[in-house]
Design goal:
- The protein has 463 residues and is of the alpha/beta class.
- It has three domains: 96 residues, Orthogonal Bundle (Glutamate Dehydrogenase, Chain A, domain 3); 132 residues, Rossmann fold, CATH 3.40.50.10860; 158 residues, 3-Layer(aba) Sandwich (Rossmann fold), CATH 3.40.50.
- The strands form two sheets. A seven-stranded mixed β-sheet has the order 9-8-7-6-10-11-12, with helices on both faces.
- The structure holds glutamic acid.
- The site of glutamic acid has 10 residues, from strand 3 and helix 16.
Length: 463
């Protein structure tokens, strides 16, 4: 009897120490969510990089933190019917994913683009949890959007769509519940229309959306914040490696709001941006995208056509149709367009051409093959959830200003953005520095973001 008890005691703790098995968990997720490729890609990356640290905390596994964190708290999907300028009824799909609110209200953008699927919004929402945790601000993770594409639509059509979208969404959001913002296809115009409808339905003027115009609660520096923050981060990466950004050449993809902010700050820092791109191809401008050329990006974006070729015509530079800018020899590559826009082949070409630093300013801009190549070749690689966190961080600052009913001057917002990006960089270095001195920023960002949310979930019980 005595012996049996002793044995039971000796065996029991061993049984209790179960660990997370990433492959098993991924198989279960793949079976539950077949075909959700982008979502599964984002989850796999995070789980693999946090596995070792996670398994040093048996209390996490006991509370099934991994199994809980990979599933959204809830998903709303709704029909969005609206009438186009010809009087025809159009029907789109609307979504809001409230992924995780362990550290603050759900927070994340809305994407309006024909490519939007549940898988894409789930990957974006999942990434947003850890990105928001890294900002040091109290924001949970969420994402939403629609397969509606505002490009080529009249202002009236965009307004009617946004009003129809908000007629459903307004029930689920609130300044302390869920605070949407912009993403691809959702800029100040769309936020204005969405906000107008929310205000009418809810009968209140609150900070329920960020990215608003300055006249009704928006924050200075918010339009520039994603690109500016990205460059503050990249500059720190270079300086930590004993290099300077001044005089470096940069390949940028995209020509929208993020690319514009990045090109502006890179030029101010003394670097030379030599490419921009669109779905039609890329432009190569060896003299650098600066001055009036940066202003022209705004003009180009305002046109209905999703093409970058007119830049080449206007400034007499080379346009390469149907190709991506990663074949150009540059020191730094900054994906600023969309997910998986830089693959293994692109990465190899960049490495062969001597790239020293890659900063994802788009969300999940690089494929897993590209990331492996950068890390195995000890190229500085900054993941989107760290590098592009300046956008949502400044949204967080907009929420604070709205809650205080005041408006900070631009230099104050910019100084705070600077501090936040430096803080994110420090967290990545803390958790990502390898024994040989190389900083694995992906690992650092994933561990720092994940641990914060995991600790909060653990403290709050099984909810
Ligand atoms: N869509 C941006 C992002 O991916 C900004 C989100 C926000 O400001 O809430 O982080």
């Amino acid at each position: 009897m005595q012996l049996k008890t002793t044995l039971r005691k000796a065996v029991k703790p061993l049984n209790l120490v179960s660990v997370m098995n990433v492959e098993k968990l991924m198989q279960q997720l793949e079976a539950k969510h077949p075909g959700e490729a982008e979502y599964l890609q984002a989850v796999r990356e995070v789980l693999i990089t946090v596995e070792d640290v996670y398994n040093q905390h048996p209390e996490f596994e006991k509370a099934k933190i991994a199994e809980r964190i990979v599933e959204p708290d809830r998903i709303f999907t709704f029909r969005v019917p609206w009438v186009d300028d010809r009087g025809e009824v159009q029907v789109n799909l609307g979504y809001r994913i409230q992924f995780n609110n362990a550290i603050g209200p759900y927070k994340g953008g809305l994407r309006f683009h024909s490519s939007v699927t549940l898988s894409i919004l789930k990957f974006l929402g999942f990434e947003q949890i850890f990105k928001n945790a890294l900002t040091t601000l109290p924001m949970g993770g969420g994402k939403g959007g629609s397969d509606f594409n505002p490009r080529g639509k009249s202002d009236g059509e965009v307004m009617r769509f946004c009003q129809a979208f908000m007629t459903e969404l307004w029930r689920y959001i609130g300044p302390d519940t869920d605070v949407p913002a912009g993403d691809i296809g959702v800029g100040a115009r769309e936020i204005g229309y969405l906000y107008g409808m929310y205000k009418k339905l809810a009968h209140e003027h609150t900070g329920v959306l960020t990215g608003k115009n300055l006249e009704f609660g928006g924050s200075l520096v918010r339009p520039e914040a994603t690109g500016f923050g990205g460059l503050y981060f990249v500059k720190q990466m270079l300086e930590t490696a004993g290099q300077s950004i001044e005089g470096k050449t940069i390949a940028i993809s995209g020509f929208g709001n993020v690319a514009w902010g990045a090109a502006t700050k890179a030029t101010q820092m003394g670097a030379k941006v030599v490419t921009l791109s669109g779905p039609d191809g890329y432009i190569y401008d060896p003299d650098g995208v600066s001055g009036e050329k940066i202003d022209y990006m705004l003009e180009l974006r305002a046109t209905c056509n999703d093409v970058v070729a007119p830049y080449a015509e206007k400034f007499g530079v080379k346009f390469v149709p149907g190709r991506r800018p990663w074949e150009v020899k540059t020191d730094i590559a900054l994906p600023c367009a969309t997910q998986n826009e830089l693959n293994g082949e692109d990465a190899q070409r960049l490495i062969d051409n001597g790239v020293i630093c890659v900063g994802e300013i788009s969300n999940m801009g690089c494929t897993p093959e590209a990331i492996d190549l950068f890390i195995n070749n000890k190229i500085m690689y900054g993941p989107g959830k760290a590098v592009n966190a300046g956008g949502v961080a400044t949204s967080g600052l907009e929420m604070t200003q709205n809650a205080m009913h005041l408006c900070w001057p631009a230099d104050e917002v910019d100084a705070r953005l600077h501090r936040i990006m430096a803080d994110i960089h420090a967290q990545c270095v803390k958790y990502g520095r390898q024994p040989d001195g190389y900083i694995n920023y992906m690992k650092g960002a994933n561990i720092a973001g994940f641990m914060k949310v995991a600790r909060a979930m653990l403290a709050q019980g099984v909810v």
